[in-house]
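User: I'm curious whether this sequence folds into something compact or stays loose and floppy. Could you predict its structure so I can see for myself?
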Amino acid sequence: MPPAEPEGKERCTDVMENSFKDRFSSASPDYRRYRPAYPASLFRYLSSLTKDHDAAWDCATGNGQCAVALGDHYDRVYATDASSSQIHRAIRRKNVSYAVSEARASGLAEQSIDIVTVAQALHWFANEAFYREVSRVLKKTGVIAAWAYGLPVISPQIDALVRELYSEITGGFWEPEIRHIDSDYHDLPFPFREIAAPPFSILARWTFEELKGYLGTWSAVAAMKSAGRGDPLNAVLPDLVKAWGAPPSKKNVLWSLVLRIGRPDR
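Assistant: Here's the prediction. I'll summarize afterward.
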């Protein structure tokens, strides 16, 4: 039986009002434009782990970049996010269906999904309710894969300024869940039979404006602005411009991925 379509906004309104904290809707256009793309090699590897390639669920899809990449390997992709703004602006693809839904209530049929993916989001909802939903929808031969990335690596001088922005300038405005990325997801509960994964990384070739746009998508930057503290980027911008060099120069920007993969324990 094919998976049931996620029922969308009407289905999960009460749940969202009670527990979902929308951190990214205000920046969703920039989120789509400036967040780095995951490597194609990651999705080739993940697809090699599943016996079937009928259906995937990309949970907390954000701008849909992961869902669209999964569409190269799975017949149907169900992409959900609790943010209606993110879903509205997500990248469209013929075999990708989008719905507004919380992580713990996908609306998908039992044992209908070959792979569940969570990109840069598991730290927000790694709880018993979500893991029950994953176990419910995954086939016996399915897998769950969750990954995240921390600060980029560009050059010693630029990296130091980015760390200053992260730790000192915006440090008090990061939510506590971010610590899980800092610890490479090692302290997150993950009740599945784990699969050791090879290393993966993201490599982009960016202009300074792209780096600036990416830094502007940080949730702590938005939180400082909302608190009336101004734009924290201004504190490091002159030094970042100087360290980057004259436009339109481009630089390699590297993020190492933290990846946890598992199979249902049944």
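Summary: The chain has a mean pLDDT of 90. The longest strand covers residues 250-263.
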